[in-house]
Amino acid sequence: MRMAVKVKNVMEDIVIGRMGSIMEKSGCCMCDQCQSDVAAYVLSKIKPKYVSTVSGELYSKSIQLDTNVENEMVFQIAEAVQIVMQKPRH
Predict the structure, then answer these.
(1) What's the CA gap between 71 and 14, in Å, rounded?
(2) d(CA 3, CA 16)
(3) What pLDDT is stored for residue 5 in this prediction?
(4) pLDDT of residue 12
(5) pLDDT at 63
(6) Can you give the pLDDT at residue 78?
(7) What is the block-wise mean pLDDT of the chain (90 residues), using blocks of 10 residues?
(8) How high is the pLDDT of residue 53?
(9) In the chain, which residue ranges form alpha helices assigned H by DSSP?
(10) CA-CA distance, 88 to 90, in Å (whole number)?
(11) CA angle 32–65–74, rounded 5-degree value
(12) What gap in Å lies between CA 50 and CA 56, rounded to an integer?
């Protein structure tokens, strides 16, 4: 019998939670496609953080990110916003 594997990259929720304000301040389009493009770009550039339980997910979201990880994420979001603004796919 095969077991269902359930994992989640908690960085997805963290990136999506932070990118909105950066996109708005930059004047970036906030349509679903542009938001998805920014998120995909950033998540492909930063280190993932996978968990396999709900308690692991809650714990990971409750701890503060390392300053270097936070800075890298913000830098990657800003870079993604500039790229998406130059060539929006909508």
Answers:
(1) 13
(2) 30
(3) 75
(4) 94
(5) 67
(6) 98
(7) 83 94 97 98 95 79 77 97 95
(8) 85
(9) 11-26, 32-45, 54-62, 67-86
(10) 6
(11) 45
(12) 9
> Which amino acid, residue 28?
C
Altogether, the residues listed in the chain come to a count of: 90
> Which DSSP symbol is given to 88?
-
Residue 90 to residue 80: CA distance in whole angstroms: 16
The first and second tokens of residue 58, run together, are 């809650």
| Residue 50 · residue 9 · CB < 8 Å | yes
| Token pair in block for residue 26 | 């930059």
Q: What is the DSSP letter of 79?
A: H
Model pTM? 0.86
Q: Structure tokens of 50? A: 């996978």
- In which residue are the tokens 């990657």 written? 76
Among 49, 53, 46, which Cα is nearest to 63's? 49
